[in-house]
Automatic annotation (TrEMBL):
This is Tail specific protease domain-containing protein. The chain crosses the membrane at residues 664-685. It comes from Triparma strigata. Keywords: Membrane, Signal, Transmembrane, Transmembrane helix. It comes from the Eukaryota. Residues 1-23 form the signal peptide. Gene3D superfamilies: 2-enoyl-CoA Hydratase, Chain A, domain 1.
Amino acid sequence: MKSLFNALPLLLLSALLFTAAQGACTLSCTEKTVCYSNLSDAAECWNNIPTNNDWKNNTLDVITQSLENFGFQALYHETGPPYNLKVPVMEELNGAKDMTFDNDFEFQEHLQTILTSLLDAHTRYSKPACYSATLVMPVAFDFRLTESVTNSGAVQSEPVPYFIPSIYYDEYSEQNGGVDAALFNQPVLLINGVEVSTAIDAWGTTHETRSNNAGARFNAAIRSFLYRSVVSCLVGDAGDSLTMTMQDGTEIVLEWTVAYTSAFGQASECVKKQKTTEDVDEEMLPNRQRILLNEGLGEAVVTHAELHENRPDRKVVISPEDAEYEISCFVQSTKGDAGSSEAGVDDVLVMKVSSFSPNGTGYLDAWDGFTTDAATCLDENYDMIVVDVMQNGGGYVCMGLRLLEMLIEDYWNDHTKVEMKYDLPHSTLMNGWIANVNNPDPYIDPDAVEQILNPESQEPFVDGKAYYYPGRNVTMGGVKSWRTNWFCLNCKEAEVLPNGWAPKKFMPKEKLIILSDGTCGSTCASFTRIAQEANKATFIGAGGLWKEEMDVASFAGGFVCQPLYLATMAAQAGLSTFPQFITNQYWQFGWAAWYSQIQPSRPVQFIEQGPDHRLGFWQFPHASVNSSVTTSATSALYDEVIADSISRISVEAEAKNCNNKNGVYIGFISFLSVALCGLAGFVVYEQVRRRQDEGGGVDSPYAVLGK
């Protein structure tokens, strides 16, 4: 297909480069390396990229025209509870067209401020490549649970923040002449005069887009607060430094260090070649919905040696280093552990699903690899499953649904039970696409991704008009708008993978544990929400704001789209050319909306559903933290999840067994026995539940009874 908008006209490109070249940056860095600077010099670089009205107006045109297809545009006029957001995004963007800015960075920050206020990781904007830098600190947060005894004698747990060295400790020390040892081995009380949790929460509310839920957002902000990517985050208000007040009263000022790459501060890097309509690839497909949770200079990793070294109770099936298709797993023996006999749990399968976006030669190859690895894990012998989806940013929708089918018997037997109801907003572009192309799917290449189905007939729509018209006149946020008829995704290609495989067994709800930190998003949100709304699994939440509600998933809205995709649709339909960026920023938005089963008129993204149990864990892997530290903490978390789950199951089994035994007797003695048995079971269960809610586990259900 011939592109309607190939390279920029040379005259325009030359003019842009000439204008951009007026601001020089004194920092330089060789390609494929990371260099370091103080914040003052770095700020000179980003402030020296001058205002360019062509860049500004083009950027705003692309985003505002894209947002005519935004799935939640009407709803954001007033989302209602639980989040109560009011974001007049189109009005704010149109207002920016008439504003003047001192430099391009000021414009970029203003634009990001508007879009960050949506608190939607699907609808996010990243600055161009000339801002490729990250503000870093020599420390990272390490929240630790501490116990105290109340006046009534009750034991209460509370997270207390400490510092540990970050991976930038050595570079920072070299840049700044060392790091004060008083930062370590004692709690940090205040940051810039504000309590630590309050400071992180407040910053996350205005800077961290990973979740509209405060608890999940806090988990992300714990890391991004001290690791601020200039490309993906607002940094203009960072200040020169942070003042840390320690428990002993010591105040320590830490200035920001900036890690940057060769592109940073070079205006010419902002106008490097963009992809055209001929370059749409699988990363841009609407149903490959995901985000990279640790944007910046690196990714979080889990190391095999730290996770399983000196653990004879663990059988490694797929190690993290060998997880080519994003799944690793091991089987942990619990035979002989407290409560394991009563719970009927001798072996536990722990599966880490890092992403639902496996690599492969085409999507079917990726799908086959993902499901084959999942089957390899599920072919092991086990009595309980723990699925870790912490920090999973999503991927192929059908992979999330297929894994649910492989785990849950009802879904294995009836695939329609995992289907999700979607719709799309009507728009000028979509009206033209339907009129002139009329594909039965809203895709430029229906063979490249999951097609859509009529949920009533379970068959493809005959053409585009069949799902687009008559449509539905819907009121969201107090605003009426037209949306398509309901549709669902066709995952039939995934439903046969891996070929010839069938599960050996399925786990009941209490023995299928899904572990989430709340940032499990996009397709990962589909994976968690479907099982949660149907009460098919037990959900354990890690971290969050202590004693406050936390969601198990984030950015659960449908699937995403990008300007290049819309431009290709416009070109195929013979419509007016859809604008494309002349600079190389990244922008995507939520396109389709997905609706809840328990509140059918409500998009899932705006429903809060907390976990069944909570654990006090905040040592999340991150690019700024030594992987051996966070891997060891994650390993201990798995032990706690397993022990606490066995405790709960054994208590319930003991109480049930007790009731069954005493049910055959009659009279006062049996009545008293049943009462005492029930009371004992209740006491133990409440102790387990309370420790779970407070972040700790009970080593044995008998510890409370004194057995």
